[in-house]
Design goal:
heterodimer; A: TIM Barrel; 2 domains; 8-stranded parallel barrel; 15 strands; 33% helix; B: TIM Barrel; two-stranded antiparallel sheet; 14 strands
Chain lengths: 342, 305
């Protein structure tokens, strides 16, 4: 067999988080192809205090990114209610007027608006739309001409490949960062406990509902009064995200849903490249510019090396060590991409 | 017109004989619409698509509307095959629980029900789905009364509105099976242990408070979302159909009490008091009142613990 006859893998864009201007600049400097960002309100799924962009900030961010050949994708990926719909429409208009390279949307009604009002604006389907099959992705392609879809973190690598093979839409997958173990867009755990959730208010396990308490039994973390975990002296405590707490099931106390670990798919990069994915997303708009710089730099190097010579690709131990250091729980998992995890 | 009652698809995995016996009982329950099918996990095989279609025939023969519900989380080509099988059935309406099913139903130009997991939060999305054939939509569980009323103002005419009004709330879906995880099993070799938990596997916090139940890849509330006390408010808000979730016992009694509250032979408060013995856990109704879902808001709007 002539190995050289195999087609070169398509370019894979590195899509990095920008929770603010410093993070955006860090991503641009360290090799992102795209950054994704949101406005300072509940129109995006990382609606946290101190994060995101006002209009002037985004204008500056887009100017800076474009000056360096980097695209800016604007996440407007929460679900507007009837009363708030006009505000989401204005957010789409603002994104288009400011020159965003694409908007990332979840709500079908909002997508219809964007498609009609801004036919030139590139539409990406947010992970919050919960589209896991090519039939679902092709629905949005047929009706709104979406150019890219971000897959929820539920498919195995083989299933990702099957999706790619059956759709003209570019596929973006999560490569690194906090791991949503639930199908995004279909998780009401946070809303059930706090009244705020990713779908409607753009916040999961929001900070205002968090309490850390020193008790006789150790440090307790609570979310709106619900005990998410309790830490013995010397145990490292974590932010009380509901799906990553320790609970009692059948007399055992353990991480009943998921451990606090980050997703890291570096070792699957050649497989994902062969599957034909077109972009890899780094999670973490709520993280620091230092995190963004570190993770972007490593993933840039990894993607370049993988595309140059996929057969010889292996993640450098130094990359893994550096990424674990910035990971939740200082450890990582392949998540659903690897079947045994399921 | 009086509000109708529906029975949600059975979310749990029960042995075949128990499931068949349950649906024989459903034939005489005072519900108007029965949603059928495996919506949670494709590995469950006590009943296949053909079995569900057989049950649909019996339900229809009993004078009720039978609807086939599609799986909410689609992962594989074989999952899609089952969706196509349901979409292409002749005679029974289909409830689409993800956009792939919507696409297939719209292509066939058959009227369908837009399920709660399609995330219809505004009338623009509803109008789009109505143009594609949705004749009914189920509100997302997080949706509160004010959101629903605002949506109803601009909603396309003739599309029925259904609200989940009784049962443990389906709060999340995952690729991972948490029941298998509890037994240190992988999903692919799960031994179908969820069949041992007819109302789900209970999860408590470390201070022994009831919190969630695990139902395979689905996570549910431990509390029972109970809108019986709010049944008059549902009607006022323009809800056409109240949906009841099946549970291992007492489902028929719950349906009778909803019916009594709707017809006015019992006040909603009386009906709710009589429903208490059939409730597998404490009630909640926070979502309907714009509060955290696990809260219970009383008749006069006050919060109770």
């Amino acid at each position: 067999m002539n190995q050289a006859a195999a087609p070169a893998p398509a370019r894979i864009e590195l899509v990095c988080p920008a929770g603010g201007l410093p993070a955006l600049k860090a991503a641009v400097e360290h090799g992102a192809d795209c950054v994704y960002a949101g406005f300072k309100d509940e129109t995006n799924a990382r609606n946290f205090t101190g994060l995101n962009f006002d209009q002037a900030g985004l204008r500056e961010g887009i100017r800076h990114a474009h000056a360096h050949g980097v695209k800016v994708l604007l996440a407007l990926n929460t679900y507007p209610t009837s009363a708030s719909f006009p505000r989401w429409e204005r957010a789409v208009d603002r994104a288009a007027d400011l020159g965003a390279d694409a908007v990332i949307l979840a709500d079908a009604g909002l997508m219809e608006y964007a498609h009609r009002a801004h036919p030139e604006l590139r539409l990406h389907l947010s992970v919050q739309a919960s589209a896991t099959s090519y039939e679902a992705i092709n629905f949005y392609h047929r009706h709104f001409g979406i150019r890219r879809a971000v897959l929820p973190r539920v498919l195995s690598a083989a299933q990702v490949e099957n999706v790619v093979a059956h759709t003209p839409v570019e596929i973006e997958v999560f490569g690194f960062g906090g791991l949503c173990v639930m199908v995004e867009g279909r998780c009401a755990l946070s809303a059930y406990v706090t009244g705020d959730g990713p779908n409607c208010t753009g916040a999961c396990s929001p900070g205002k509902a968090v309490r850390w308490e020193q008790t006789a039994e150790g440090v307790e973390t609570r979310l709106n009064g619900v005990l998410v975990d309790r830490y013995a002296p010397g145990e490292r405590s974590a932010y009380p995200t509901l799906c990553k707490g320790r609970y009692q099931v059948g007399g055992q106390t353990y991480y009943a849903i998921e451990e606090p670990a980050s997703l890291n798919t570096l070792e699957l990069l050649p497989e994902l490249a062969r599957a034909g994915i077109r972009a890899i997303k780094i999670e973490g708009r709520q993280r620091s510019p230092a995190y963004v710089a570190q993770v972007t730099r490593i993933w840039r190097e990894a993607i370049d090396r993988c595309l140059r010579d996929p057969a010889a690709f292996a993640p450098a131990p130094a990359w893994i060590a550096a990424l674990n250091k910035v990971s939740e729980g200082q450890t990582h998992t392949l998540g659903a991409y690897s079947r045994p995890w399921k | 017109m009086e509000m109708k009652l529906s029975l949600a698809p059975l979310p749990y995995y029960w042995p075949r004989s128990r499931t068949l016996a349950f649906y024989r009982e459903v034939e005489s329950m005072p519900v108007d619409i029965v949603y059928l099918g495996e919506t949670v996990c494709s590995r469950r095989h006590e009943l296949r698509a053909a079995d569900w279609i057989d049950i649909a025939r019996a339900i229809a023969a009993a004078g009720k509307e039978a609807v086939l519900s599609t799986q909410a989380l689609i992962e594989s080509e074989s999952d899609l095959k089952v969706v196509r099988r349901l979409v292409e059935n002749d005679g029974f309406r289909v409830e689409a629980n993800e956009m792939g099913a919507v696409r297939l139903l719209a292509e066939r130009r058959v009227p369908f029900v837009a399920g709660a997991s399609l995330n219809v939060y505004n009338e623009r999305t509803l109008a789009l789905l109505a143009r594609l054939g949705a004749m009914r939509w189920v509100a997302p569980h997080e949706m509160n009364r004010a959101m629903l009323e605002a949506l109803r103002c601009g909603a396309p005419a003739g599309v029925e509105c259904e609200v989940f009004a009784w049962g443990r709330l389906p709060l999340a879906w995952s690729a991972r099976c948490f029941t298998a995880r509890h037994f240190n099993l992988q999903k692919d070799t799960c031994e179908f242990r969820c069949i041992e938990f007819p109302d789900g596997l209970e999860v408590k916090t470390r201070d022994a408070e009831d919190f969630l139940v695990l139902n395979g890849i689905q996570t549910q509330s431990h509390k029972v979302h109970d809108l019986l006390p709010d049944s008059a408010a549902l009607r006022e808000a323009g809800v056409d159909i109240a949906r009841i979730g099946p549970q291992s016992s007492g489902t028929a009694e719950i349906a009778r009490l909803f019916r009594a509250a709707i017809e006015g032979s019992l006040t909603p408060g009386e009906a709710d008091a009589r429903a208490r013995p059939h409730m597998p856990a404490d009630p909640c109704n926070g979502f309907w009142h714009g509060r955290p879902g696990f809260e219970r808001v009383g008749d006069r709007g006050q919060k109770s613990p």
